[in-house]
Amino acid sequence: MSLGDFLNWLASAAINIFHLITGRLFVQDSPDPSMSQKTKHVVIIGGSFAGVKTAHRFLKDAAKKNVGPHKVTLISRDTHFYWNIAAPRGIIPGSIPDEKLFQPIAAGFSQYSSDKFEFILGTATGIDVNNKQVTVYKAGQETPISYDYLLIGTGSRTSAGSPFKSRGSTEATMEFLHAFQKRVGEAKSIIIAGAGPTGVETAGELANKYQNKKEITLISSGPAVLENRPESVSKSASSQLQALGVNIKLSTKANDPVTLPDGRQEVTLSGGEKVVTDLVIPTFGVIPNSSFVPPSLLDKNGFVKVNEYLAVEGCKDVFAVGDVSNVEAPQFWFVNKQSAHMGKNFVSLVSGKPLTPYKASTTGMIGLQIANSGTGHYGNWRLPGFVAATIRKTLFVEMLPKVVDGTES
């Protein structure tokens, strides 16, 4: 044996003796796969349809495909999911119980372990896209939360005088809704300002319930109700509402109501006419909940600008879906489609795979129930009244628990 071979043998023997003493004979360290991969943190802002739906779709698809370490943090200012799709009927006292309009969000995610999901009750107050942090106001203080990928799904709001969207917290929404139901029940005259889908459906629900016991007036700022929809749909809606006794004022705008000393409300119409009524229900206008988003990421109307991947223009790893984005009209089925797509794309991001572009719909659609009939369209094809009424009969309240717990995906 040469001197070199002897020295190599001696070094090897010394190493083996060391491993023997430490109980690690011939055992070589191998890195823990879970430690070699950083957990990808997906932060979702918004506890309504867009945020909840995307979170469930991502978590379920990620589990099926066994992707790398990941966690979702859902930030919501509401403890409960509000099924505002049913609000046109829900404003009528005794029509829909609270438990069919509100479901606890956190309970819907109890199926996931704490290392996969966290619910934070708080309000997003800012986004730092350079340092990839969201500032959240919770428990009386502001807290920064870091993200790898961020989804903005905060939805939209309507006029301060309507109960069709969250009021900033579940407690505030419930309190406002209950007070509004009481006012609807007591009112002898009601003005609905805005003749879009919500206004038309609300007028139909009220007129069908009270059968001429209340004076219902629907005001449209345009020359027809459901303006910008096919003419046949607009005419169908008008004739059905008028048959129920609804008064329709066209090409008329109503200013914000003024509450009088006796509790009634006065509105000034665009022609200068002042009208006093027991209750005004504003249903016009959609305002995106985007005040916490850097202005450079918003369009002129306050909606978040996104590209074909639903990625926010002007920054990296930030996405937006639902009413807060500018990709499609703020409608239930579009939000559903966007959320499902974004859930799948988050799986691709965590897996290091390319994103799939989102195909925005160019076909207008709507379905409304008016009493025992209804109207609607898909593109230029008008839905028969009985079809629209059948589709909208329950206002989909049976879907609420399934959306919240992810079984409706």
Please, could you describe this protein's structure?
With 409 residues, the chain is of the alpha/beta class. Helix content is 31%, strand content 23%. It has helices at residues 3-21, 33-36, 49-65, 87-90, 105-108, 170-186, 197-210, 231-243, 332-351, 385-392, 400-405, and strands at residues 40-45, 70-76, 80-82, 102-104, 117-121, 123-128, 133-138, 141-146, 149-152, 156-157, 189-193, 215-219, 247-249, 258-259, 265-268, 274-277, 279-282, 287-288, 318-320, 365-370, 373-378, 381-382. The strands form seven sheets. It has a five-stranded parallel sheet, covered by helices on one side. Strands 13-12-11-17 form a four-stranded parallel sheet, covered by helices on one side. A three-stranded antiparallel sheet has the order 6-7-8, with no helix packed on it. α3 (49-65) runs parallel beside α9 (332-351). It is globular, with a radius of gyration of 28 Å.
